[in-house]
Amino acid sequence: GQVPELLFERKPRDSLQFKLRVPGTSVPNNQQEGMARCGLPSLLPLLLGGFYLCYLLLGAVIVSLIEQPQERRLREEMRLLKSQFLNLSSCIAQTDLERFLAKVLVADRYGVSVLSNASSKTNWDFASSFFFASTLITTVGYGHTTPVSNGGKAFAICFAVLGVPLTMLVLTVIAQRLMVLVTYRPIRCCQRRLGYTEWQVTRAHFLILLLLVLVCFFLIPSAIFSAIERSWSFLDAFYFCFISLTTIGLGDYVPGEQDNQTQRPLYKLSVTFYLLCGITMMLLLIQAFHKAAGLHGLTQIFDLPLAEDEGDSEEMVLHPASPCPSLKSNGLKPDHHLQGQPEPPAYESIVPSSNR
């Protein structure tokens, strides 16, 4: 006469299984231990947060030790240059010079230069505007060219509100399609033909994919940028590629900003295409790393969700779910131990007549 309770049992690969238990019956020890473990506070997030903070402090100390001497040298150089200019031009007051330099720096911050060889260049032609729009919605945001007017600033906000999530959605969808073609199918094919285990094939696949991304999206573009941009070294170009494809976008190196740039519109459009393709490949690389880390048990250490099963992912990508999706398409898996057993009685048949 007791009403069965519906229990949710969590299984590997984030699947849920449903079982019935009548009050008064015992729960297996492994389930009790799992429930107790889920309720205990974990120290792993605290350890991870502490390690992250130490890593951040270490980076701050190192970059401060490296950059402070260079900053002091540059400050001293500018001070000497300013004093020499005032000594040679006695008719110019120091306050007037500083006021002039302040306006020049403000204009330069918006991409406007007072140099004679840069007076004819505009920052808002179609190619430059297209490049600005792409860096805005991909969150790269170099900051070398920014809107000056209030209308431009308001439009940038409205454009980014829709453009940023739309860009992330488009790039993620493309990366998921590519994941099937360059990750799931090659791994499954190597398993069948070569006989290696999944974790061996996945590790080798990730290393090969990492090498291809390094060559095709970092080394080769760095050589091209260092050849086109006369003031860039190979290290400067590689630094630009890394800062751009990781969407950091410091803005200290921006392509197509040198004087007398040939085919500048085409160059800007090509760089935009490179950024979109490169960010997509970085997302693909992150997903491949997530899959490899899940097979090696790294995600379980911090209780992170595992990478999706390759069969389920390929089915979801190539064959979208029907209007009435199954348990498998929703990430749920049936309990095979309960298959073949008779279905539980209906609720009305087990509730006492006095309670109906």
Concise synopsis of the structure shown:
This protein is mainly α and 356 residues long. It has eleven helices and two strands, in the order ββααααααααααα. A hairpin with a 3-residue loop joins β1 (5-11) and β2 (15-21).
Fill in the keyword field for this structure.
356 residues, mainly alpha, two-stranded antiparallel ribbon, 2 strands, 11 helices
Write the layout of secondary structure elements.
Blueprint: E1 5-11, E2 15-21, H1 29-39, H2 44-88, H3 94-109, H4 126-137, H5 150-194, H6 198-228, H7 234-245, H8 264-295, H9 298-301, H10 310-318, H11 347-350
Antiparallel strand pairs: 1-2
How would you describe this structure to a colleague?
By secondary structure, the chain is mainly alpha-helical. It contains eleven helices and two strands, in the order E-E-H-H-H-H-H-H-H-H-H-H-H. The chain has a two-stranded antiparallel ribbon. Strand 1 (5-11) and strand 2 form a beta hairpin. The two termini are 12 Å apart.
